[in-house]
Amino acid sequence: GDLEKGDFEHYMLKEIFEQPKTIQDTYRGRIKADQKEIVLGGLLDVFPKIVNANRIIIIGCGTSWHAALVAEYLIEEYARIPVEVEYASEFRYRKPIINPGDVVMAISQSGETADTLAALKMAKAQGALILGICNVVGSSIARETDAGVYTHAGTEIGVASTKAFTAQVTVLTLFAFKLAKERGKISQELYEQLIGEMLAIPDKVQTILLSHPNIKKVAEKYKDAINALYLGRGYLFPVALEGALKLKEISYMHAEGYAAGEMKHGPIALVDDNLPVVVVSAKDSYYEKVVSNIQEVKARKGNVIAVVTEDDNGLRNMANDLFEVPESHPAVAALLAVVPLQLFAYYIAVMRGCNVDQPRNLAKSVTVE
Ligand code: G6P
User: Fold this and answer.
1) 364 is catalytic
2) Ligand 1 within 6 A of CB of 63
3) In angstroms, rounded to a whole number, what is the distance separating the alpha carbons of residues 88 and 114?
4) Residue having the nearest C-alpha atom to atom 15 of ligand 1
5) How do 102-108 and 83-87 pair as beta strands?
6) 200: how many CB neighbours lie within 10 A of its CB?
7) 230 - beta bridge partners?
8) What pLDDT, on the 0 to 100 scale, is given for residue 315?
9) According to its UniProt record, where is this protein located (predicted)?
């Protein structure tokens, strides 16, 4: 049945552990029983327009912006429509060019973020088709949009977003796969394979959750660090950003997420034997590049904590500590890799005596500009 707060010390931990169920709740009814087709009822009427879009602009703030970045990579790789991702607070003020044929999509857990709502209204006034991916049913953004998809993650209470993020990525992944198929960019065979990969995610998330004692042990080791660096490439670059955001939000440890290939242009200056470097990787097309990035970190005595899959023998041997995740197709790997990082941030924050569910200076929903 549903998890109660009483079973957990904090809402955030409860919400992290709910993810096998919330991810299922998000795709339930959207993957047809024969697993050959994705149906997004809320977009049915506008889908022909989206299929012919010149460009998709995705806006959001905070964690929702990270989900948007995953979507950019997915939509461009599979559906081959140009995508731009932007912070709502920048987009709304910078006089962006919006053409007929552009689709503007807002991602928002609460559906109430002031900048995101205002950015959408502006895009609507300029003639774009506007879409929303929200968690809160009937929220302002959901009401403002022409069409949308709810994430169905259930109420999220912890200020640091966890299950809402994986629900957003789930919806956006289904959206990208469907768009790719309708545009004739992927075969029915690949479409069904990708659907199968999505259906396998909840059990794999469960496997990661079961490894929580190990993640806690690693957290104990690094809880007193001053800074942390998170690196990833491809689909796992936004996960590196999200992992760093989780840590700084709730533990107040300074953490930075970076594209691993960009490390040599700045962050590498920070690497010494006090710096934990969390490497988010999978055996994807970026793997060899990530391994060589990590050799650079090791050569400077950085402490490497690596998210690794079972078939990974390279990083495994270079890392000081490991977070094991099951193997998956790269297109769904973000949904797995983020989970140990949520738990890592959670345990560090608890060990540092922080108010995990209500971190200082932050709000669940930012309804001011
Ligand atoms: C606040 C919350 C974040 C959230 C962001 C965007 O900063 O603390 O967890 O990601 O707002 O919120 P939204 O409801 O628009 O997704």
Assistant:
1) yes
2) yes
3) 9
4) 108
5) unpaired
6) 16
7) 257, 278
8) 87
9) Cytoplasm
Find where tokens 């109660």 sit.
4
Q: How far apart are the first and last CA of the chain?
A: 39
Residues contacting 247, CB < 8 A, separation 6+: 228, 230, 253, 255, 341, 344, 345, 348, 349
Element (H, E) at 297: helix 287-299
367 lines ligand 1 (CB under 6 A): no
pLDDT for 110 equals 96
Task: Give yes or no for a contact between 340 and 307, defined as CB atoms under 8 angstroms apart.
Answer: yes
| Contact predicate 315/306, CB 8 Å | yes
The residue written with tokens 């796969």 in the block is 177
Question: For residue 2, is pLDDT > 70?
Answer: no
Contact predicate 304/318, CB 8 Å: yes
Dihedral sign of CA atoms 134, 138, 143, 149 in order: positive
Which of the two residues, 264 and 66, has the higher pLDDT score? 66
pTM of the model: 0.96
Could you give the ipTM of this predicted complex? Answer: 0.97
Can you say how many angstroms the Cα of residue 283 is from the centroid of all Cα atoms in its chain?
19
Indicate the top mutation candidate among 16, 63, 144 to test ligand 1's pocket, ranked by most ligand atoms within 8 A of CB.
Answer: 63
Separation of alpha carbons 188 and 185, rounded Å: 10
Residue 132: band (very low, low, confident or very high) from pLDDT cuts 50, 70, 90: very high
Rounded-to-integer distance, Cα 55 and Cα 75, Å: 10
Structure tokens at 172: 């956006």
Is residue 240 within 8 A of residue 214, CB to CB? The reply is: no
In 3-state terms, what secondary structure has residue 268?
helix
Angle at the Cα of 69 from the Cα atoms of 359 and 156, rounded to 5 degrees: 35
Whole-angstrom Cα distance, residue 163 to residue 24?
A: 11
